[in-house]
Amino acid sequence: MSKLKDIRPAQNGFSLIELTIVMSILILLYAVVSLNLSNARPRSSLNTQITTLSADLRQQQLKALSGQANGGTASEYGIYFSENSYTLFAGTSYSSSDPSNHVINLNDDLIFNNINLPQQSVIFSAGTGEAAVYDAGQNSVSLLNSVTNVSRMLTLNAWGTVISVN
């Protein structure tokens, strides 16, 4: 029986020091992950808008090629740029009063900071889809994320194609 008295019951659980170390490591991991994810939305916002704008440019060019909206008769189509939005329009020039215009507003953190295009617009010629008014010195538009201060520039060629996104 004397051997039974010397046996101590097993200790269950963790010590306070072990718990403190584990909690410190978890808090540190949470801080690193949350800092990395805090810039994910602004970066994603800029890239998504660049992709959408490129697709809208292609769509307007294809409409000019095919005459999609005018019963098969080719017509000019274009995009007009302002600081916080861009407008898809039909015709040889932009008219703010045209009810068929389609305005696309940018996210609150995005602006066009450098619109280097003739009359702030790109117009695609009917039947060919080429840029109607092209100037090699005026062929780009820049989009700025005001939160991250990152800017991306789209450059067009004479055929109305996006040739670079920097």
Automatic annotation (TrEMBL):
Question: Membrane-spanning residues where?
Answer: 12-33
Please name the SUPFAM superfamilies in this protein's record.
Pili subunits (SSF54523)
> What InterPro entries does the annotation carry?
N_methyl_site, Pilin-like
Keyword check for Electron transport, yes or no: no
Q: Tell me the keywords, alphabetical order.
A: Membrane, Transmembrane, Transmembrane helix
Query: Does Membrane appear among the keywords?
Result: yes
Instruction: Note the superkingdom of the native organism.
Output: Bacteria
Q: Which NCBIfam families match?
A: IV_pilin_GFxxxE
Q: What is this protein called?
A: General secretion pathway GspH domain-containing protein
The species this protein was found in: Candidatus Gottesmanbacteria bacterium GW2011_GWA2_43_14
